[in-house]
Amino acid sequence: MADRKARAMSVMGTPDSADVVQKLSEDNCWKLLQREQLGRLVVSVGERIDIFPINYLVDQRRLLFRTAEGTKLVELTIDDQVVFEVDHVDTTSGWSVVAHGTAHTLSTSAEIAAADALDLRSWVPTAKYNTVEITPYEMSGRFVRFGDEPEH
Fold first, then answer.
1. Is residue 147 part of a domain?
2. Which of 31, 61, 63, 66 fits as disulfide partner to 134, beta carbons 3.0 to 4.6 Å?
3. What total of structural domains would you count in the chain?
4. By C-alpha distance, which of 123, 142, 118 is closest to 52?
């Protein structure tokens, strides 16, 4: 666990001891996203909002995941605007990255072949023949240091 914290700190630099919450740069957000594999995808159709845990891969400032036919894919087809969130917590600190973006299912043979060449595998042993790409247009992140609450 100490190794993971050291790697996260190397991404963000040395935090100022007075800053218990630090805003992360977009570059640092991407570096942290590359270190994880599980995130949450938020989709919305009409007044319905759904959230799905997905395993993902970062490739060239885009997020890729595989999915089967079903609710998630239908909702992405109806409304391609998504939110994607990843976080990490240890005993002394944590971070969270939120990306707003557009999603589309890869459809050309070139896109599919390029995605198939990546090490993107589903954690659940079911057939998932659709690869979805999320292209973020806005990204934000926060690093937080845990501690005692200040006196009131």
1. no
2. 63
3. 1
4. 123
Residues 6+ apart with CB under 8 A from 55: 37, 38, 39, 65, 121, 122, 123
Question: Which residue type occupies 22?
Answer: Q
Selection from 60, 85, 73 nearest residue 141 by Cα: 85
pLDDT in tens, 22-62: 999 999 999 999 999 999 999 999 999 999 999 999 999 99
- Do the domain assignments include residue 149? no
| CB 36 within 8 Å of CB 88 | yes
User: What is the number of alpha carbons within 13 Å of residue 118 lying toward its C-beta?
Assistant: 19
**Domain for residue 93, yes or no?**
yes
Helices assigned H by DSSP within 23-70:
26-35
The range of the structural domain enclosing residue 28 comes to: 2-12+20-139
6: which residues sit within 8 A by CB, 6+ positions away? none
Q: pTM of the full predicted structure?
A: 0.84
| Residue 150 located in a structural domain | no
Cα–Cα distance for residue pair 103/52, rounded to 1 Å: 14
Could you tell me the CATH number of the domain that includes residue 104?
2.30.110.10
